[in-house]
Amino acid sequence: MSLPYTEKVMDHFRNPRNVGKIEDANAKGTEGSPACGDMVSVYLKVNDETKRIDDVSFESYGCASNIATGSIITELAKGRTIDEAKTITWKQASDELGGLPPLKAHCSVLAVDGLRAAIEDYEERHGLVKERKTTNVEEVRRRLKRVMNPLVGLDLVKTELVTGIMVEKGKVTVAVDLPEENQFANVIRQEIIDKIEPLWDVREVEVRFT
Question: Which of 100, 107, 172, 174 is flagged as catalytic?
Fold first, then answer.
């Protein structure tokens, strides 16, 4: 059964805007999982003085709605300040595309969540978080749910690769049930560091493979 996509959805699907990785991006957010069928990563290049988004791009794995919404939210965000970009909603993205089938509405939510995750990443790395909460095990675990296990396409927590988390005096230690010599070990280590290091009270992140 074909889904009733609008002409604008199909245009952004066939000719997506702002696709690819920004090599000198100063923020990144990823939401979803290929195993669930949809994933989107959003890259930002934010002007540190004006806090305006000079450049934005996305990489997508998924259906036409996923690609189209990733395309439209980058168009909506480009040129705005990070505070303005925070106000972009899934409904706004859907409306800009002329509507999405109800079964695919979650795709616009995923893209907007990716944008907000990228903004959060920028704010944390630049000390712009207004409410600073002390980092604890639960916060670390929440962030590790955004780190994928390349072996199966699900996150490290869901696949139970994380065997231990310790937070003590600014140091976060994460134990991963994977051999150090595994081909994906270095990628996983870097992803974990990228997710945890921006936290304001974290001085060091250690990843131990067991």
Answer: 107
Superfamily of domain 137-209: Fe-S cluster assembly (FSCA) (3.30.300.130)
Note the pLDDT of residue 37.
58
For 7-125, give the CATH class.
alpha beta
Q: How many CB atoms lie within 10 A of CB 154?
A: 18
Identify whether 63 is a catalytic site residue: no
pTM of the model as a whole: 0.74
Q: By the 8 A CB rule, do 164 and 176 touch?
A: no
Successive 10-residue mean pLDDT values, the chain, 210 residues: 76 94 93 67 96 96 85 96 94 88 70 92 88 91 86 83 96 96 91 89 95
* Phi, psi torsion values for 89, nearest 5 degrees: -110, 165
Catalytic residue from among 3, 10, 36, 152: 36
Residue 1: predicted pLDDT:
41
